[in-house]
Design goal:
The structure holds two protein chains of two kinds. Chain A is an all-alpha fold. Chain A is built from 13 helices and no strands. In chain B, α2 crosses α12. The chains are: A mainly alpha, B mainly alpha. The interface between A and B is large, with 113 and 110 residues. Chain B: Its main location: membrane.
C-alpha cells in the first residue's frame, strides 16, 4: 500500500502548496484510497547469463562496503568481547583471551541490568511521546488554514533542522545551574529552591531533560510526515465520515488509522531504533552522569570503553546491545519481509 | 445553522491558538540560541535573562577566531558531501536491483540492509580505533568519510528502493518498447522521478555526517583532521563555559542545515518515509 506515493509517482508529480491530492481510487465510499500496487511480474525467463549477473553486479559495491566497513568491525568487536583488553593490552598490542569472563561479569552485575531496564524504559517513554505528540500535531497541521499551517510547519522544520550536537548544547545552556533560563522561569513562577538548582543532579532529572530534547527534536519528523500522509487520504473521506455522524475519535480509528498503518509501522520502527541508539543527546548533556545514572546501553558501553578503559567489557556490552535490539525488532523484520513478498 | 458556524469558528480560533503556542515551543530553543549569540558579553551571564539588548557580533568573532577554524569548515564539508555522494551512487545501483529485479539472496539482502540500519556506531568506536590504527588511518579525513558513508548507506538504500518501487513499471517498459535500453530507460524515466527521494536521502545523510561526534573525536585527535562538532565543544575553559561563543558556534553550525531544510522542505518532507514505506 502506498502511503505517500503521490510525492513520487507520475500521477501527481507536483504537489500544490495546498497539498491536497485526491486519494487515488476515487470516491468517498471506498476505504482503500491508494492507487493499486503494481503487479509483481517475473522477468528473466530464458535470459542470457549477462542479464542474470546484472543484479549481482549492481549490489556488489554496497555488499562489499557493508562487509568491509561494518561486517568486519562487528566481527572484530565480537572477538574483543572474549578478550581481556585494557589500556595496557591496547598499547602493547597483545591479545589475552578471557573466554566468557566479560559476559559472566556483566550478566551477574546488577548495574548492567539496571542499565538494560533504563534503556527499555527510556525508549518506551520517548517513542510513545514522540508518536502521540507527532500524530496529534500532524492532524492539527492538516486542519489548519494556510497561513497558520505555514507558521507551525516552519517552526517544526527549524526544530528538526537543528543538528543534535547544537541542540544538546542549547539545552545544556537552558538548564545551566547558574545562569540557565529554566531556573529563572521556575523562580519567576514562584517555586522555591531554584536559586542554583542543578538539573543534572540526579539520573532521573537528567533523563527527563534528555527526553524533552529527544521528543522536541523528533516530533517534527513524525508530525510533518503524518501531515504529508494525511493529504493523500483526501478530504472526501473525512467529510463522508462526518456526514455519517462519526465522531473525531471514530474518524481517526476507522478512517485515518487503517490508511496510515504502514506509516505508523515504519515510523515507530525508525524511532525505536533511533531512540534506543541515541548517544549524542545523552552524552552531550551530562556524559551519562551523575555516576552513570543516566546511561543507556550505548552510553554505558562508551563509558566502560573510554573512561574505564575496559575495552573487552565494553565490546561485550555492545554485542549484548546489538542482540537485544535484534530480538526486540524481530517482530518488525517479519512484518517488513512479509510486505516484501508482495512487492 | 448560525450556531454551527460560530461553533466552527470557535474551533478554528482554538486550533490557531494551539498552533501558535506549539510554534513558539518548537522555535524557542532556536530563538534562545540565536539571541544568546548576539548578546553583549555582559548580558549573557546574568541571573535575570535579558530579553532586550543591543545586538553585537563579538561572540562570532571569538568563535571564528579559533585557530584552524577554516580547516574545521573544510573538513566538515568534505566528509559530509563526500559521504553523501558516495552513498547515493552505491545506493542507487543497489536499490534499483532490490526494487526491480529478482535474484537469489534478494530477501536476505533486504534484511541485511534493515539490520545494518541498527548498527550502534558509537559502541564500535574502540574497534574502529584499533582497525584505523593498524591500517595507519588515524587522523585521516578520507577514512572518516568512508566510515560516514557506511553510516548513511543502509538508510539511503532502503529509502531509494521505496522510491524506485513507487515508479510504475509501465513507464519503464514503455520507454524500452520505444527503443531505450534498460539503462537509458532508468536514466531518462526513473531518475528524474527520483528527485524528491534523492533530496530527502541526501539531506538525511548530510545531517548524519555533519553531526557525527563520537567517532571523529576518537579517530582524529589531530586538530588538522577534526570537524565542526569538535569546534563546538572548544569554548569550555577551566573557568567555565563561554556561552556566548558556544551559542554563536552552534548558530553557525545550524544555519547551513536550516537553510537547506527550508529550501527543500516541501519536497523532502513526506519523502523521508514515502521511500521507507514503499509503494
Amino acid at each position: 500500500m502506498a502511503v505517500h506515493s503521490e510525492g513520487v509517482g507520475v500521477k501527481a508529480p507536483s504537489r500544490t502548496p495546498r497539498g491536497r491530492v485526491p486519494g487515488g481510487a476515487g470516491g468517498g465510499n471506498t476505504t482503500t484510497p491508494s492507487p493499486p500496487a503494481p503487479r509483481p511480474r517475473r522477468g528473466g525467463r530464458g535470459t542470457p547469463l549477462a542479464a542474470v549477473l546484472v543484479p549481482y553486479l549492481l549490489v556488489t559495491p554496497a555488499v562489499v562496503a557493508g562487509l568491509v566497513l561494518l561486517g568486519y568491525p562487528l566481527v572484530r568487536n565480537l572477538m574483543l568481547s572474549f578478550q581481556d583488553l585494557g589500556a595496557r593490552q591496547l598499547i602493547m598490542r597483545t591479545t589475552e583471551w578471557a573466554g566468557f569472563a566479560n559476559y559472566s561479569r556483566l550478566l551477574g552485575d546488577a548495574e548492567f541490568w539496571s542499565v538494560v531496564g533504563r534503556s527499555f524504559g527510556f525508549t518506551a517513554v520517548n517513542v510513545a511521546l514522540i508518536m502521540l505528540v507527532g500524530t496529534l500535531v500532524g492532524i492539527l497541521l492538516n486542519s489548519l488554514g494556510r497561513a497558520m499551517r505555514l507558521v507551525l510547519s516552519l517552526a517544526l522544520v527549524a526544530a528538526w533542522a537543528m543538528p543534535v550536537v547544537a541542540s544538546a548544547t542549547v539545552f545544556r545552556w537552558l538548564f545551566d545551574t547558574q545562569f540557565g533560563l529554566a531556573n529563572w522561569v521556575m523562580r519567576t513562577l514562584g517555586f522555591d529552591g531554584y536559586e542554583q538548582h542543578n538539573w543534572f543532579e540526579t539520573g532521573a532529572s537528567t533523563l527527563a531533560i534528555v527526553t524533552l530534547l529527544v521528543v522536541w527534536g523528533s516530533v517534527p519528523f513524525v508530525a510533518l510526515n503524518m501531515y504529508a500522509g494525511l493529504t493523500t487520504v483526501g478530504t472526501e473521506l473525512y467529510e463522508a465520515a462526518r456526514v455519517d455522524g462519526a465522531s473525531n475519535w471514530r474518524i481517526f480509528r476507522s478512517v485515518i488509522l487503517p490508511v496510515m498503518r504502514p506509516f505508523f509501522l515504519i515510523t515507530t520502527f525508525l524511532e525505536v531504533i533511533w531512540v534506543f541508539k541515541a548517544f549524542t543527546q545523552i552524552y552531550a548533556l551530562n556524559a551519562g552522569g551523575p555516576d552513570g545514572a543516566s546511561a543507556t546501553l550505548p552510553v554505558y558501553a562508551y563509558i566502560q570503553g573510554g573512561a574505564q578503559q575496559q575495552y573487552g567489557v565494553a565490546a561485550a556490552i555492545s554485542v549484548l546491545t546489538i542482540l537485544i535490539l535484534l530480538v526486540a525488532m524481530s517482530f518488525y523484520f517479519r512484518l517488513i519481509l512479509k510486505q516484501e513478498e508482495e512487492l | 445553522m448560525i450556531q454551527a458556524r460560530s461553533r466552527r469558528a470557535l474551533g478554528r480560533g482554538a486550533r490557531n491558538l494551539l498552533a501558535l503556542v506549539l510554534a513558539a515551543v518548537f522555535l524557542f530553543p532556536v530563538y534562545w540560541m540565536f539571541s544568546t549569540s548576539l548578546k553583549p558579553a555582559g548580558a549573557v551571564l546574568t541571573p535575570e535573562p535579558r530579553f532586550f539588548f543591543v545586538p553585537t557580533f563579538e561572540h562570532y568573532g571569538t568563535a571564528t577566531g579559533v585557530e584552524l577554524f577554516w580547516t574545521y569548515v573544510r573538513n566538515s564539508l568534505t566528509v559530509a558531501v563526500g559521504a553523501v555522494l558516495l552513498a547515493l551512487v552505491v545506493a542507487l545501483m543497489a536499490s534499483f536491483a532490490l526494487a526491480r529485479m529478482r535474484f537469489r539472496g534478494r530477501r536476505g539482502l533486504v534484511l541485511a540492509v534493515m539490520m545494518a540500519q541498527m548498527a550502534p556506531w558509537e559502541v564500535l568506536v574502540i574497534v574502529m580505533y584499533m582497525i584505523a590504527r593498524d591500517a595507519d588511518m588515524l587522523n585521516n579525513i578520507a577514512a572518516i568519510t568512508v566510515v560516514y558513508f557506511m553510516m548513511v548507506l543502509p538508510f539511503t538504500v532502503w529509502t531509494l528502493r521505496g522510491f524506485i518501487a513507487a515508479v510504475p513499471r509501465e513507464l519503464e517498459e514503455a520507454a524500452m518498447v520505444d527503443g531505450c535500453t534498460r539503462f537509458t530507460a532508468f536514466r531518462r524515466v526513473i531518475f528524474p522521478l527520483l528527485a524528491p527521494g534523492l533530496m530527502s536521502t541526501s539531506l538525511f545523510g548530510f545531517i548524519t555526517a555533519w553531526n557525527e561526534f563520537a567517532l571523529v573525536l576518537i579517530l582524529n585527535k589531530e586538530p588538522e583532521a577534526q570537524t565542526l562538532p569538535l569546534w563546538l565543544t572548544q569554548f569550555n575553559t577551566g573557568f567555565g563555559n563561554d556561552w556566548g561563543a558556544t551559542m554563536s558556534a552552534a548558530s553557525m553550525f545550524t544555519v547551513p542545515v536550516l537553510l537547506v531544510f527550508v529550501f527543500l522542505q516541501r519536497r523532502a518532507v513526506g519523502g523521508m518515509t514515502a521511500g521507507a514505506v514503499k509503494g
